[in-house]
Specification:
By secondary structure, this protein is α+β, with helices and mostly antiparallel strands. 53% of the residues lie in helices and 11% in strands. Among the domains are: 135 residues, 2-Layer Sandwich (Beta Polymerase, domain 2); 59 residues. The strands form four sheets. Strands 3-4-5-2-1-8-9 form a seven-stranded mixed beta sheet. Strands 6-7 form a two-stranded antiparallel ribbon. The chain is globular and about 90 Å long. The relative contact order is 0.05.
């Protein structure tokens, strides 16, 4: 195993001082999968005070002494070093009330969540795998260490971590572990919202987000109960062949990236609420984008998403079903309203939404979206004018024409911008100044009459 210099130095120092030491957990898992680990955690037989003594020449942070953890900084890079331990009860379903330090790595590994995370390695002892983590990696399984009910009752966030790991690595949740996830889902209500949010975002970013959301919909509905009415909800509309929930899952699978998938997870959440049915038995969902935006904002605030993510997601849900118009003037108006980044996000969401609809409409809808995307690229390549800063005249130029500073000057600038975006006049200084004179003269005349 190719251990980075900092982690290797820590292992060597601890072993030279007479203490067994291993890299452990996620770094071992990811290395065996051929991935580059983000962090290298170390476990050791040394007690916290002994660890600090070994590294007295380095900067050491007392980040978790109560649980046996200190952080050693090697060339500015932090490495968590934790004493082998077993854990007591988990009153808060998240953290152990107490820990007991032990002298062997096997006991330490036995307290961990999943077999793929319960492996340790050192150059002198090789790989320590007491619970079949290697086999589960080979077979693509997420399996609890020991009794699943016990693991989840200790730390209920592990319920979401199981789904997250399965989604991100393209694994499946082993049968007994899966049964326990369904059985213990209510424990998630005792977990802080921000912790659940982090796991949900990672789950959504994974390669198997669709299948995990489907298989464990009851778990997802526990944290977002507003989604539950969508399951089995027949849309009875020629544009749709799936239930509202299945449509959502197909839309999520058709997009890439956490934010687009978050938008798509919630984009049709208000359809059951806004549903009406006509005399022909066709269902309609008038107003569901606006109502869905309101519901999404409440959900995202409850899950403690950051303000920017809430704003973007809510705005995209509000606009996901809108007609965008045709031609460059229409695209310029959208750019003026949203900016390039948000418009690209809206087009991503609309494309994924279209791909999850009835086959008879997909080709036409995608053609419209692709045309708008093509026009967007042309407008950006041409450096076409779609906001005030792109105008070849500024407020000072209009003041020099005799137009006094104030609201009317701003109105004229915006009228010039609108005319440029609509291809009514060119974005040239002389043309804009002439048009400004005409607009100002019209305003003077209208005020006199």
């Amino acid at each position: 195993m190719n251990i980075p210099n900092g982690a290797a130095l820590i292992l060597q120092r601890l072993e030279h001082s007479g203490f067994d030491a291993y890299v452990v957990g996620g770094c071992v898992r990811d290395t065996l999968l051929g991935l580059q680990p983000n962090d290298w955690d170390i476990c050791t037989a040394a007690r916290p005070d002994q660890i600090m003594e070994c590294f007295r020449q380095f900067r050491v942070l007392e980040t978790g002494l109560r649980h046996g953890t200190v952080t050693v900084l090697i060339d500015g890079q932090p490495f968590e070093v934790t004493t082998f331990r077993v854990e007591g009860t988990y009153t808060d379903r998240r953290h152990p009330d107490s820990v007991e330090f032990v002298g062997n790595v096997e006991s330490d590994l036995a307290r961990r969540d999943f077999t793929i995370n319960a492996m340790a390695y050192s150059p002198s002892h090789g790989l320590i795998d007491c619970f079949g983590g290697q086999d589960d990696l080979r077979h693509g399984l997420i399996r609890c260490v020991g009794e699943p009910d016990r693991r989840f009752s200790e730390d209920a966030l592990r319920l979401m971590r199981a789904l997250r790991f399965a989604s991100c690595y393209g694994f499946r949740v082993e049968e007994s572990t899966a049964r326990s996830v369904h059985k213990n889902k209510a424990l998630l209500k005792e977990i802080a919202s921000e912790r659940i949010r982090v796991e949900l975002e990672k789950l959504l970013s994974g390669v198997q987000a669709q299948s995990l959301l489907r298989e464990f919909s009851d778990v997802i509905f526990t944290i977002i109960p507003e989604l539950a009415p969508m399951e089995g909800f027949d849309q009875k509309n020629p544009h749709h062949i799936y239930t509202a929930w299945e449509h959502t899952l197909h839309a999520v699978a058709a997009a890439q990236g956490t934010l687009p998938r978050l938008c798509l997870l919630l984009h049709d959440i208000a359809k059951p609420v806004c549903c009406t049915q006509d005399s022909a038995g066709v269902r309609h969902f008038i107003g569901h984008p606006e109502k869905g935006a309101q519901m999404a904002e409440q959900i995202l605030r409850r899950l403690r998403f950051d303000t920017e993510t809430i704003h973007r997601t809510v705005e995209i849900i509000r606009l996901h079903d809108c007609k965008m118009g045709e031609g460059k003037p229409a695209v310029r108006r959208w750019l003026n309203r949203m900016g390039e980044e948000m418009l690209r996000l809206l087009l991503q969401v609309k494309e994924a939404d279209a791909r999850a609809q009835a086959p008879a409409y997909i080709k036409e809808n995608l053609a419209t979206i692709f045309k708008i995307s093509q026009l967007l690229e042309e407008i950006l390549k041409e450096k076409s004018c779609f906001c005030l800063k792109d105008l070849e005249v500024k407020g000072d130029d209009l003041v020099q024409l005799g137009i006094p500073p104030g609201p009317k000057l701003g109105e004229i600038l915006n009228m010039l911008l609108q005319k440029v975006m609509e291809d009514q006049i060119s974005n040239e200084r002389s043309v804009l100044l002439d048009e400004a004179k005409v607009l100002w003269k019209k305003d003077i005349l209208s005020s006199k009459t």
